[in-house]
Amino acid sequence: MEGLTLNLRKIQGKANGAKSEIPAPKYGEQANPEPNVLASEKQPNYSDLDLFHRAVYPFMFLAQCFAIMPLLGIRESNPRRVRFAYKSLPMVITVIFMVSTTIIFSGMFRHLVLIGISAKNFVGLVFFGCVLIAYVVFIRLARRWPSLIRLWTKTEMVFTKPPYEIPKRNLSRRVQLAGLAIVGLSLGEHALYQVSAILSYKRRINLCPNITDVASFDNYIQKNYDYVFQVLPYSPIIAVFILASIYKYFRLSTLYIKNILNILNMLKIFLQLLNGACTFVWNYMDLFIMMISKGISYRFEQITARIRQLEHQEVSESTFIQIREHYVKMCELLEFVDTSMSSLILLSCVNNLYFVCYQLLNVFNKLRWPINYVYFWYSLLYLIGRTAFVFLTAADINEESKRGLGVLRRVSSRSWCIEVERLIFQMTTQTVALSGKKFYFLTRRLLFGMAGTIVTYELVLLQFDEANRRRGLLPLCV
Prior knowledge:
Elements: E1 8-12, E2 19-23, H1 52-65, H2 89-115, H3 123-156, H4 171-207, H5 217-224, H6 226-231, H7 236-250, H8 254-263, H9 266-309, H10 317-361, H11 370-400, H12 405-409, H13 418-429, H14 444-464, H15 466-471
Antiparallel strand pairs: 1-2
Helix pairs in contact: 1-4, 2-3, 3-9, 3-10, 4-9, 4-11, 9-10, 9-11, 10-11, 10-13, 10-14
């Protein structure tokens, strides 16, 4: 990418139309540490500006409730107050959830080794494995986030004032509407999963005479998370040993010990909450990529709108210099963002590819209850729709970065200058898009290539799974 040296800018003279050269304003970064603020200006009121930080903070705060992005000051309007610290409450919560997810992953792995791993029962291990990796990736991203959001704010400050215009649907509204759609649909998917699992559990107990268990929440958790209790057995004996050691130091009464024994039952409730948290993390990977893509494509859209305003006008060279400067700054921001989160993009794409293939593999399988069909088709359509939506949102960056080419190519000979030629060359030759570790770029062409890959894999997998489909359903009361 060719850099710009803009210490001197040509501007049109007001009196006689002659061009003069004046030095560009210098930013007093030492006197005033706020992003992109002149030394002689007051600090801006960030809460009133259409900034990316203000648009995403509700979803960043929601993510912290599920132990993702352990940051401090995320609710502050000033992005310079956002910071990362290992010794902080959000980081402690993240570590607790990571350890808990590791226990579930270890229990499921041990259980699969005992019963035998197959393509059908391997999906749970992949799910919790992706969640664990996502926790690590988000911690790495949280370490870089303070510097990233400051650079982002500094770069986009110029787009919050003339000559740039704020579209009818501003950045906050676009990000929040898309985010609410993803969160709402994911809640529906998780709720249907729970309803399907609980109804299947109850009907099995009611219809099978050889099962003497009574339907209860405790029994449901023990049956549904049996692999966890193989690693971390839920036993009153363990609780007695723990309480005995506590009693040795604090001399707790017998009544208080009984109350703590009752509190230990919260482990089963925690497992259910942890499963919901893992589902949120699994969905949040795509939601986060979508928010980042919305924020960057929005600024390229503003650049395109400004270029279109100049059509059929005589434009000075200084205007094209300024537009190209802002375009280069956005490309530099995109490069920094891509470096920080390309691991997350790679993980998200691999995760979506695997689960779409797995769900499509089960399309022709018979299910036992109608609620199972409702959940399966909702989950499949939601997964495909979410994957396509994230790809198309990320591809908008590449599309918006090139939409001004048509106007630039029609610039009149009186306004044509070397800066127009450079801007056209940069738009046509440079790939402006997010990537997965530079292995691929998120463009519309990749979405169709991924769809073709899924179809190819499905045709192969269906042939190998033909024997399992012929077996049909296993007996209910076994």
